Amino acid sequence: MPNDAATIETLQPGIALLRLTRATRLNALSLPDLQFLHTLLDTCLADASLRVLVISGEGECFCAGLNLKSLLDENGQLPATVRENMDLQQSFAGLVQRLRDTSVAVIAAVNGVAVGAGMALALAADVRFAAQQAAFHVGAIKIGITAGECGISYHLPRLIGAGRAFELMLSGRPVASDEALRIGLVSEVLPAGELLDRALQCARQIAAHAPYATAHTKRLMWQNLDAPSLAAAIELENHAQVLGLMTEDFQEAVQAFLHKRSPVFTGR
């Protein structure tokens, strides 16, 4: 059946916007909604020309995470089995993994409150911008389950440090946009009306580079966050650089530099 949880539109060649569109439900997601989002990602990530994916939400909320009401039966009870709950959790976590695994750069334009798995979606992005009214809530610890969900326990300490991450995850207190900027959770805070324009500006800057350069920079950054040593990180960098030197786009960049013109990259 049709699903109105989200839309994808092309903003310009190579740049797409995934927008959560159930503002009246704070963009909270049920299992069918998650399955629909996976279908949307199947389509857009299969497009070899896509370079940058921007994610945002409609209304006052970026994403409130799981739609808890969708789990209840007609008696207000939670009938799901362990297997069904695991399917739900893996579907949410799978979105996070896909954003990390793709070579497409992902920008989160956090327009409002991001709660639980919604916060996890923002953390999985490579770049985050926030509107002034945005706030980040771990959420789950307040309803009797762990704050570690959908990669939050992995991403948050790597973004803001373990000490701050422990405090936020154990207390469950919200992080307003000004604090998010101060602790490095977002790159910039803007008025709501300027948020998507800023995200698009960044997307254009990324898409202007050679596809090999951006894809492998993203891969190197994430992999080297877990590098066991400086030597291991440099080894990975060396291999990526040598492969890059063999591309036609590198040759084009050299010629453009020599002739004082802008390069025209082809992805080869």
Automatic annotation (TrEMBL):
Tell whether Isomerase is among the UniProt keywords: yes
Per UniProt, what is one GO molecular function of this protein? Answer: isomerase activity
Q: Which PROSITE patterns match?
A: ENOYL_COA_HYDRATASE
InterPro entries given in the database record: ClpP/crotonase-like_dom_sf (IPR029045), Enoyl-CoA_hyd/isom_CS (IPR018376), Enoyl-CoA_hydra/iso (IPR001753), Enoyl-CoA_hydra_C (IPR014748)
- Keywords on record: Isomerase
Q: Which domain of life is it from?
A: Bacteria
Q: Tell me which family the UniProt entry assigns to this protein.
A: Belongs to the enoyl-CoA hydratase/isomerase family.
The name of this protein is Enoyl-CoA hydratase/isomerase family protein
Native organism is Comamonas piscis
